Amino acid sequence: MSTPISDTFRQQLQALRADVLAQLRAQRGGKIGRAEAAANARETESDDWAQADAERDLAFAMEERESAELVAIDAALQRVTDGSYGLCTDCGQSIATARLHANPVALRCVACQDKAEQASGATKPAGY
After folding, report:
1. Do 12 and 59 lie in a common domain?
2. Distance (Å, rounded) from C-alpha 62 to C-alpha 22?
3. Is there a single domain that holds both residue 32 and residue 13?
4. Global pTM?
């Protein structure tokens, strides 16, 4: 991938990373850590234990998803740095630029992604 294109994707990934970090901070109530956020949530929980448990589970799931997304973004930034960004990890062919714009952390070309999903039994998300 050429340097100007790599720079474009690096900027897109860095902006995406900043957005995910901001979402994580907002979920934690600002700049506090995970333990402090959990303690604060426990203090403000309502008497409805089922609702409180559901809210806590949802918050935990969202944080885990965003943490995984952050790991994927950092891995993509490393691929930009080492020059392998935009190459399919399975077949080594270039990943379509449109796919990278839609999913900048994509590891595979569409054909290899389809094969991987079929092998795992996964279904395609809406808008794939």
Report:
1. yes
2. 13
3. yes
4. 0.69
